[in-house]
Design a protein that fits this description.
Shape of chain B: globular
Shape of chain A: globular
CATH architecture of the largest domain in chain B: Orthogonal Bundle
Number of strands of chain B: 2
Number of helices of chain B: 13
CATH topology of the largest domain in chain B: MetI-like fold
Structural class of chain A: mainly alpha
Order of helices and strands of chain B: EHHHHHHHHHHHHHE
Oligomer: heterodimer
CATH class of the largest domain in chain A: Mainly Alpha
Largest interface: A-B, 119 and 118 residues
Number of strands of chain A: 0
CATH topology of the largest domain in chain A: MetI-like fold
Order of helices and strands of chain A: HHHHHHHHHHHHH
CATH superfamily of the largest domain in chain A: MetI-like
CATH architecture of the largest domain in chain A: Orthogonal Bundle
Largest sheet of chain A: none
Strand order of the largest sheet of chain B: 1-2
Largest sheet of chain B: 2 strands, antiparallel
Helix content of chain A: over 70%
Chain lengths: 290, 309
């Protein structure tokens, strides 16, 4: 790599458009956000500097804590099932048995379709009497099939969680499967000769060796859950009342419904810090074991 | 949201591609399986069951798209499998959803192309050119992988408003491109880094300039990386919801998911569930086709050390 074949100026020119976009649309807003969060910024009209009032009002606002609490609850509910289902699917498709490639594709398709589209489809199937969720439950004799899932906080949360676990476990599967395929076969063979059962081999070889991959998939799904918005907006609009309002939705409402951009930006920055801490924890976890 | 991670080495080729089967000597690193009859049965049973759980909801979606709206909201009866194209005809006839599809297509294809081009240029620059500040700037790009756009939505909205980029498909494309660039740059830098230097050197000796070298010498080698960057950008923007909902208020610019949510909330009169089902299936189809056709590039993206989630 010499400067003769690779002039410095050409290098700078090549990266400039991309870096400029990143700076303009990520770093500038981040800096501006700090300033806005210290003003009583409305969408239109004059504004003034008000110090930390927005932070004080956000941190004493029950709707902020409710949305934070609900987001934590939602994250807590879906994280372990996504990991377990993803792990199970990975075990199923990790070897090169016939059909494994097809199964991998099938299990990953919901993730590729995305929660936006899946939420619209779930909206149809969650209808009382007509939706498939109710039809199946009535067929199994569990309910009478008239459940109105989306107008009840806990029921809506349960249904949303099932949908998200179903849709997101494919990603966990692919990541864990790559890790599993990287474990040398000899490790298992010697354990097998020592008489270790399948379960013992799984728990004492696979899981410890995949610790980093598992930590990474958990953090990915935690961050994804923490930023949840779309599925809630489409299926419940955060309701009934504000029972299913996630933190991103609370920010969205503060900013674009109540038009309190200063307070909304203060909430955003709190969220930046929280996700930043989770990401930092991720790097710390991954570094520690390398 | 995307995060840089490591995937154990030697796994890249193994994912998603069928390897030649050699029954006598099972390939290394295929997990603790030693096939017995019981295990094979368990695999066939579990695999079939799980496949049904993942496929049936999608099949139902297609059935719904073929049902008239009043059948969708009625308890299943004899009309359940009376399928027709009436909803798709309505999509074509109703300007709202049809325009949404066109807008989504324009935005996501433009995003994919722009992301691929900018990420390729930047990846080349970062991988092969020793300019000052390279490490700092690349670090800056990687840091943005950790700033979720959901968290900077309000200041970003204000800024795009000032720049005249709200209520503009071009503005939305710039926004989506920015969201997808860090991952794309990361993939392309790795791609260019694996190209041997001799190749460029000999082309340079032959008198080719940077652009010539990139287009005629390096292109065939880096196309897979470019395809990965474009595919991720397309899939991420085709049904992206929060940004489109925030940055677009002019209904003629609504992308498909925003027009569907307006349809659902009754903005266009009485809710037509048939239209909603057909619109959702139309939203689903390009994702499935592109993923199945370009699975190799998708998995390469996952394995190249980065994950979009």
């Amino acid at each position: 790599m010499s400067t003769l074949t690779h002039p410095r100026r050409t290098g700078l020119a090549l990266i400039t458009p991309a870096v400029a976009l990143v700076v303009v649309f990520v770093f500038v807003p981040l800096v501006v956000a700090v300033y806005i969060s210290l003003t009583n910024f409305p969408l239109i009209g004059p504004y003034r500097f008000i110090g930390f009032d927005n932070y004080a009002s956000v941190l004493t606002d029950p709707t902020f804590w409710d949305s934070l609490g609900y987001t934590l609850l939602y994250t807590a509910i879906v994280t372990l099932p996504i990991l377990l289902l993803g792990y199970g699917l990975a075990v199923l498709v990790r070897s090169n048995r016939r059909g494994a490639t097809l199964l991998r594709t099938i299990f990953f398709v919901p993730f590729v379709i995305g929660l936006t589209t899946l939420s619209f489809l779930m909206l149809l199937e969650a209808q009382p009497n007509s939706g498939m969720v109710n039809v199946v439950l009535r067929f199994l004799g569990i309910t009478d099939g008239s459940t109105a899932w989306l107008v009840d906080g806990p029921l809506a949360t349960g249904l949303l969680c099932v949908m998200v676990v179903w849709a997101a476990s494919g990603l966990t599967m692919v990541l864990l499967m790559s890790g599993m395929q990287g474990i040398p076969r000899e490790v298992y063979e010697s354990a097998e000769m020592d008489g270790a059962s399948w379960w013992q081999r799984e728990m004492q070889i696979t899981v410890p060796m995949l610790r980093r991959t598992i930590a990474m998939t958990v953090i990915l799904s935690v961050i994804g859950s923490f930023l949840a918005f779309t599925q809630f907006y489409i299926l419940t609009q955060g309701g009934p009342g504000s029972e299913t309002t996630t933190i991103v939705m609370a920010i969205y409402r503060r900013a674009f419904v109540q038009l309190q951009l200063g307070a909304a930006t203060a909430m955003s920055l709190v969220l930046v810090v929280i996700t930043g801490l989770v990401t930092a924890a991720q790097f710390w976890l991954l570094r520690e074991r390398s | 949201m995307a995060t840089v991670t490591e995937v154990p080495a030697g796994t890249r080729a193994a994912v998603g591609r069928r390897r030649p089967s050699r029954p006598a000597a099972p390939p290394p690193g295929a997990g603790p399986e030693r096939d017995t009859r019981g295990k094979r049965t368990l695999y066939a049973l579990g695999g079939t069951l799980a496949a049904l759980v993942f496929l049936i909801p999608l099949v139902i979606a297609f059935v719904r798209a073929g049902q008239p709206g009043d059948v969708i909201v009625a308890a299943p009866d004899a009309r359940f499998f009376d399928l027709s194209w009436v909803n798709f005809q309505a999509v074509v006839d109703q300007p709202e959803v049809w325009r949404g599809i066109l807008n989504s297509a324009i935005v996501s294809i433009s995003t994919a192309v722009l992301t691929a081009v900018l990420a390729t240029l930047a990846g080349y620059g970062f991988a092969k050119f020793p300019f000052r500040g390279r490490a700092v700037l690349f670090g800056l790009v990687l840091v943005t992988l950790m700033v979720p756009f959901q968290a900077i939505l309000t200041p970003l909205y204000l800024q795009m408003n000032v720049m005249g980029l709200t209520d503009s498909l071009f503005g939305l494309v710039l926004f989506y491109t920015t969201v997808n660039l860090p991952f794309g740059i990361f993939v392309m830098r790795n791609t260019f880094a694996s190209v041997p230097a001799e190749l460029e050197d000999s082309a340079h000796v032959d008198g080719a300039g940077t652009v010539r070298i990139l287009v005629s010498v390096l292109r065939p080698l880096v196309i897979p990386g470019t395809a990965t960057a474009a595919l991720y950008a397309f899939l991420a923007s085709w049904t992206e919801f929060l940004g489109a909902l925030t940055f677009l208020t002019d209904s003629s610019l609504y992308t498909l998911p925003v027009s569907l949510v307006n349809l659902q909330q009754g903005a266009y009169g009485q809710v037509n569930f048939g239209l909603l089902a057909a619109g959702s299936v139309i939203a689903m189809i390009p994702c499935v086709i592109l993923y199945v056709a370009l699975q190799r590039y998708y998995v390469a993206g996952l394995a190249s050390g980065s994950v979009k989630g």
